[in-house]
Amino acid sequence: MLLKIFEKHSIEDPTGEPWLIGINFVRSWLSLMDLEEASMAEISELTKSVMENSRKYLSRAWHDTELGVWGWCKVIGHSELIPDSLRSMFSKKNE
Questions:
Q1: Is 16 helix (H, G, I), strand (E, B) or coil?
Q2: C-alpha dist (Å) from residue 80 to 13, 30, 36, 51, 83
Q3: What is the pLDDT of residue 42?
Q4: Residue 50, class by beta-carbon neighbours within 10 Å (0-12 exposed, 13-18 middle, 19+ buried)?
Q5: pLDDT average per 10 residues of sequence, the chain (95 residues)
Q6: What dihedral angle (degrees, nearest 10) is formed by the CA atoms of 37, 67, 51, 49?
Q7: So what's the pLDDT on residue 9?
Q8: In the prediction, which pLDDT does 28 show?
Q9: What is the DSSP string of 17-84?
């Protein structure tokens, strides 16, 4: 779904950097999800990238992508990567 959103915006605004970067980011994330076990270095790089892009581009698509990455981190057992300010959003009481 996120890939389609970035692709749609890219078609509407072909020179829009946030959308082109978003397409590449989501594809990288999907590749990591397809791995049986992603390395901590790969996961850390992905989380660093999503935080930087979400803050740089300030769009709903990037915000949703960031939340998706944090949810994925929780699912794969890396809740420690979720920023403290967002960790309560992913706590057991909010499941």
A1: coil
A2: 36, 21, 20, 15, 8
A3: 96
A4: buried
A5: 83 82 94 92 97 94 95 94 90 62
A6: 40
A7: 79
A8: 96
A9: HHHHHHHHHHHHHHHHHHSSS--HHHHHHHHHHHHHHHHHH--HHHHHHHHHHHHHHHHTT-GGGS-H
Question: For the chain, how big is the Rg over CA atoms in Å?
Answer: 14
Residue given tokens 């915006």 in the structure block: 9
- Give the residue among 45, 85, 82, 59 at the shortest CA–CA distance from 6: 59
Amino acid at 73: C
Q: What tokens were used for 82?
A: 């979720």
- Location of structure tokens 């509407």: 12
Longest dimension (CA), the chain: 42
Q: How many Å apart are CA 76 and CA 80, to the nearest integer?
A: 11
Q: Are 62 and 18 in contact (CB under 8 A)?
A: yes
Question: 77: alpha, beta or left, given left = phi > 0 and alpha = psi -120 to 50?
Answer: left
